[in-house]
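Next comes a concrete protein, fold included:
___
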Amino acid sequence: MSTEKEFRDELFRIIENKITGMGYSVYNCGNKTNLVYQIIINGNGDVQPDDPVNPSRGNYAFQTDILIKKGKIPIVTIETKYESLTTHDILTYSTKAMKHKEIYPYLRYGLIVGNYGKIPNRFFIHNQGFDFAASLSYNNDNSFFDGELDGIINMIKKQIEDSEKLLKMIEEGNGAKRFSRNIEILL
């Protein structure tokens, strides 16, 4: 793999293969990955965008790289980078995540960087909106290391589970006695 698109497409195929059978749909960078970041009531009292479930990019919506949905509901979003991760990337995508979470408070938002070694310390200093992040490396034959891939798939499944818990709590309106975000770090 030599480009971010190739990395994203391969990662998408693997996630789709592992997640779709669980009752979720997985979408790859395109029309179905646009998520509303803002809802406005215009001067006529109409909601904008007209179709917040299927928004178009640039019409109060940002495009995401990989999106996991349950029916119409976005559950997990994954942004991808390849062979680099700058402070600007972290700040930009973290802000994007926070904007989406204003509309979808149960949405889990992540970043997966291909062929980059480790997530740098600046990620932990500047991140505000990401719920998870991972670095994914390759074998000499350009295939992903199995152990890393299994760990990332398990992490995504956990994010789906967490999103479902938040969504259920919000829908039922009962609140909670406890809430805790746990940090798992693999060095």
